[in-house]
Design a protein that fits this description.
about 220 residues, alpha+beta, Nucleotidyltransferase, domain 5, 2 domains, four-stranded mixed sheet, three-stranded antiparallel sheet, 5 helices, 7 strands, elongated
């Protein structure tokens, strides 16, 4: 059986169109409506022009292109941060997707890397049978955590200052993992086994975030 004939709409497509979807998007209104077709201004991203169709009922003519001024926003950079122990991996991209920089920075040097999970746990009696465990008081463990936190903050600021000086664009956006909810005090985090297992990672993320907030905005 022969398929039914589809009405020929070639009359709307005979004229060249500056936009590939123009004929479909701007079909004229039926003449019997007695209305003029509405005027639509649509931005053609590649041409940087406004397409302004002015069609009378039943008429078929190409859309008129009207040059418009392009508004170009200044390009900026975004940094993705992933903590890795007491280090952080920084990947910097331009706003248009161009790769700019990848580097690893040390947040601390010469200090224990996991003071919550190791020294803090030993202070409250966890993991004492591990071969690397050593005696430490809870007060000393809390003080150690504070020293590591301060050192990580300095390391983050220094590393991010170097990054900002090296990339050619101002850094305006940062992506970093959200920290889990933890007890408010260092001592409470040490006492809570679940919190102690993730508190070191959260501490380094907080240090990197603090360094990013205080970073210079550009080279």
């Amino acid at each position: 059986m022969r398929s039914p004939e589809i009405p020929d709409r070639a009359t709307d497509r005979d004229q060249p169109s500056p936009h590939p979807a123009a004929a479909a998007d701007y079909a004229p209104l039926p003449a019997e409506w007695g209305l003029e077709s509405p005027v639509f201004d649509r931005l053609a991203p590649q041409a940087g022009r406004v397409l302004s169709p002015h069609r009378s009922p039943g008429a078929s003519r190409p859309l008129r292109e009207e040059p418009v001024a392009k508004v170009r926003r200044p390009d900026t950079a975004a940094v993705g941060v992933a903590e890795l122990g007491n280090s952080a991996i920084l990947v910097t991209m331009a706003g248009r997707g161009e790769f700019l920089d990848r580097r690893r920075i040390d947040l601390t040097r010469g200090l224990p890397t996991h003071p919550y999970h190791h020294e803090g746990s030993w202070a409250v009696g966890r993991y004492l049978d591990s071969p690397w465990a050593r005696p430490i008081s809870l007060a000393d463990a809390v003080a150690l955590v504070e020293r590591v936190r301060e050192s990580a903050g300095r390391g983050a600021r220094q590393g991010l200052e170097s990054l900002a000086a090296a990339v050619p664009l101002p850094i305006t956006r940062v992506a970093i993992r959200v920290c889990p909810e933890l007890p408010p005090t260092t001592q409470e985090r040490i006492a809570d086994t679940r919190a102690a297992n993730v508190a070191d990672s959260a501490m380094y993320r907080e240090a990197a975030r603090g360094g990013l907030r205080k970073r210079p905005s550009g080279p």
